[in-house]
């Protein structure tokens, strides 16, 4: 009976085409992520929306950063996973990271279903559980929730492949293992990194990545103009 505001009370994460619906599912308190031994089992989470709270550090502050893939695997039988994280994320984090277009898995089959995954505010967490999660016992039943997370899939080219190392096994050389990294753990900066060499190379020398020919930088491009 309570309506929540997108990005203020609920911030969804794209789990791919096989994301389950949690409409009409019952909420269950899964426990505190800082005490893994007391978390409910995957079987106890089956078909339900698992509400999780965050661990605290030695100073009592919430450790707001969590590993989504590990939590998804831990509660793979759930209809949905809700982590009470929004109130503890740094200012602007939700708008800069979760609110923009997200990258999901295109072409994922329905056989590889995953629970819906979203972060919630403390207000939403209390309403979903019908009690204060911090005072709840893992396994405590909450209320029934309604809702569905739907993403629009858009195909787009990727041009950030640095290298491809072919395999030696003839049976596996047609398969790919993608290894990537990202640098958002170093913080956020609103200004453009005009003096960064990677930024300059991508924006000036080869804007289309491998689709552009290899060409040396010129005096004109060094001033920031397109070559």
Explain what the structure shows.
With 227 residues, the protein is an alpha/beta fold. Helix content is 15%, strand content 14%. The protein contains five helices and six strands; from the N terminus they run E-E-E-H-E-H-E-H-E-H-H. It has helices at residues 68-74, 93-98, 122-129, 197-205, 219-222, and strands at residues 10-13, 25-32, 49-53, 80-84, 116-120, 141-145. The chain has a six-stranded mixed sheet with strand order 1-5-4-3-2-6, with helices on both faces. It is elongated and about 65 Å long. The mean pLDDT is 81.
Unreliable residue stretches: none
Helix content: 10-25%
What sort of overall outline do the alpha carbons produce when their principal axes are compared?
elongated
**Could you report the average pLDDT, rounded to the nearest whole number?**
81
SS element count, helices: 5
Strand fraction band? 5-15%
Question: Separation of termini?
Answer: 58 Å
- What is the radius of gyration computed over CA atoms, rounded to a whole number of angstroms? 22 Å
Sketch the topology as an H/E string, one letter per element: EEEHEHEHEHH
Quick rundown:
The protein has 227 residues and is an alpha/beta fold. The chain has helices spanning 68-74, 93-98, 122-129, 197-205, 219-222, and strands at 10-13, 25-32, 49-53, 80-84, 116-120, 141-145.
